[in-house]
Design goal:
two-stranded parallel sheet; 8-stranded mixed beta sheet; 10 strands; alpha/beta; disordered N terminus; 11 helices
């Protein structure tokens, strides 16, 4: 009798569905205190009364409690809607409708009332304006100097998209420091700043330096950059005439924004500070919670 052969179906083991890589957990060194205290309340009241915008609020800055508690704030002019859609930034994106020609006066008066010794002014991008908002920038700085002649000023200006006439107007009001953040290394620009160009921002810094200004820029860490890319960015900035660099940890403002690729240890921030100084920068503010205007009052006196 022929042997009866039974062919059983081959059962393949079920494939394990791929799991998303675990997001890095926020470490203890990134904990901040909630904003409290009478000085914070005073700044809060003045900002509300004068209908002012601050990047402290719009950008969800982790140092708002510390800075406002010290009676200082970074004011954001030209509204609070930006024409850019950078994937790291909490400021609203859209078509701006606000163009308040009285804003320079209100900002200057608020700074006078607050007795600010060093003021930081920034703005959203206004690509739809022919002069990129440069006339408002210039008037704001001039009026601050008129009402508070003892106040030093840093202007953190946006990318003017190679409108160099607008740049000249923006930086000619009498401010002591002109800052323009490159934000990240060149390889990540399409991901982080899709409407900006790395080389164009470097040229803006170079032109600002050529105009005789104290120059400053900032980079966020933890977006996926390598150490070699950070060294290259520092070299590029030094070659462009940069004086002061701020380095801080990127923090995801909402779930719609870029994930944090890595939380950078404070020891590496310290290393980058030493590297920046060794490579020719005059001053490097480096730490997990450092932001563009953090300790900005110190930067105005950096020897250059």
């Amino acid at each position: 009798m022929d042997e009866l052969l039974l062919t059983l179906p081959i059962i393949q083991p079920q494939a394990t569905p791929p799991t998303a890589p675990a997001k890095p957990r926020k470490p203890d060194w990134l904990r901040v205190k909630l904003p409290v205290g009478p000085e914070y309340a005073k700044v809060r009241r003045l900002v509300d009364e004068h209908k002012l915008h601050t990047i402290c609020e719009s950008g969800n800055c982790p140092n708002m409690g510390e800075c406002w508690g010290a009676g200082t704030a970074t004011f954001m002019i030209l509204g609070n809607i930006c024409t850019r859609s950078c994937s790291f930034c909490a400021v609203a994106t859209g078509r701006p409708t606000e163009y308040d020609t009285d804003e320079p006066r209100r900002v200057a008066e608020a700074i006078q009332l607050m007795s600010v010794k060093h003021a930081v002014i920034t703005s959203v991008n206004r690509d739809e304006l022919k002069d990129r908002g440069a006339s408002i920038w210039h008037e704001t700085v001039v009026l601050i100097k008129q009402l508070s002649p003892g106040t030093t000023i840093e202007t953190l200006i946006p990318d003017v998209k190679a409108n160099w006439a607008a740049l000249e107007t923006m930086i000619s009001g009498g401010q002591e420091v002109v800052s323009h953040n490159i934000e990240t290394v060149g390889s990540l620009y399409r991901l982080v700043r899709p409407q900006a160009k790395y080389d164009r921002s470097l040229e803006q810094i170079r032109r600002t330096k050529d105009a005789g200004k104290r120059t400053k820029s900032g980079i966020m860490l933890g977006l996926g950059e390598t150490q070699a890319e950070m060294y290259q960015a520092m070299d590029d900035l030094v070659a462009s005439g940069l004086d002061i660099l701020t380095l801080g940890q990127y923090l995801q403002p909402t779930k719609r924004h870029l994930d944090v690729a890595e939380f950078i240890h404070p020891d590496l921030f310290a290393h980058y500070r030493e590297e920046g100084l060794r490579r020719g920068l005059k001053y490097v503010e480096s730490g997990p919670l450092v932001r563009s205007s953090y300790h900005a009052e110190r930067h105005v006196n950096v020897p250059i």
